[in-house]
Amino acid sequence: MDKKILVANWKMNPQTAREARVLFDAMINVGRLKNIETVICPPYPFLPIFGSPKSIKLGGQDIFWEPQGAFTGEISGKMLKNLGCEYVILGHSERRQFLGETDETVNLKLKMALKENLTPIFCIGEREGEEMSDIVENQLKQGLADIGKNQIEKIVIAYEPVWAISTGVQAKPCLPDDALSAAVFIRKILTGLFGKYLGGKIRIIYGGSVDSGNAAGYLKQTQMVGVLVGGASLDPQEFSKIANSLNNLA
Ligand code: PGA
């Protein structure tokens, strides 16, 4: 059985290296669970303080699309690799909303991540009032443009309806039925783009107000293979409960 994927997106938290170390240490047991792959994505400055943890994978929260050079404030894929990262979150809705991320820039970043042998966690999802199918189809087609069939399997797609993200003004829970409809739709687009075999193998995970009460349900009811956790990943007890609930799934 393939491992379930559990991603912790710490966003711009916590504020000090000391707090980050305490948080990380409190989560270390989660990495020992056999049936899940745990990926922690802290802010960049904290990456070096964790050393090379064996049981937990590290991820970045973004990269730039150029390999190096005069790009003030940016960080390259190679830098993440060099700090022990195996994953990188790309196209997160907060970057799309606040930092001008577009489908085109996400596409360039995906290609750079693959070049650097990082596993991209490619976030897609509609905002409140938008039609899921229109938005998601566009994000997938543009974001995955020119990605070769030999590389597509490495990408993890994270469906995150923006209206369900806990930090949103009025986050609403995404019902498993809605997540299922999205998963089925995403799969349809992926098989259309990459064929039945490859399109059927690409991993899809869910994100948006995931907690210990709903995490396992998303996987059981939607055929998704993991979750991306924001707010609840800053609470080690809650995060452990989420991890256990996924680990105990058949
Ligand atoms: P949330 O965030 O779990 O706090 O809703 C998820 C995300 O934005 O990645």
Oligomer: single chain
Count structural domains.
1
Uncertain spans: none
The radius of gyration computed from the alpha-carbon positions, rounded to a whole number of angstroms, is 17 Å
Order of helices and strands: EHEEHEHHEHEHHEHEH
CATH architecture: Alpha-Beta Barrel
The termini sit apart by 9 Å
Number of helices: 9
Number of strands: 8
| Mean pLDDT level | 95
Q: What molecules are bound to this protein?
A: 2-phosphoglycolic acid
- CATH class value: Alpha Beta
The coarse overall form would be globular
GO molecular function: triose-phosphate isomerase activity
Subunit structure: Homodimer.
Pathway: Carbohydrate degradation; glycolysis; D-glyceraldehyde 3-phosphate from glycerone phosphate: step 1/1; Carbohydrate biosynthesis; gluconeogenesis
Family: Belongs to the triosephosphate isomerase family.
Quick recap:
The active site is at residues 92, 160. The chain has helices at 17-27, 77-82, 93-98, 103-115, 132-143, 176-194, 196-201, 215-222, 236-247, and strands spanning 4-9, 36-41, 57-60, 85-90, 119-124, 156-159, 203-207, 226-229.
What report would you give on this structure?
By secondary structure, the protein is an alpha/beta fold. It has a single domain, classed as TIM Barrel. The chain has helices at residues 17-27, 77-82, 93-98, 103-115, 132-143, 176-194, 196-201, 215-222, 236-247; strands at 4-9, 36-41, 57-60, 85-90, 119-124, 156-159, 203-207, 226-229. Helix 1 (17-27) packs parallel to helix 9 (236-247). The mean pLDDT is 95. The protein binds 2-phosphoglycolic acid. Residues 9, 160, 165-167, 207-210, 228-232 line the site of 2-phosphoglycolic acid.
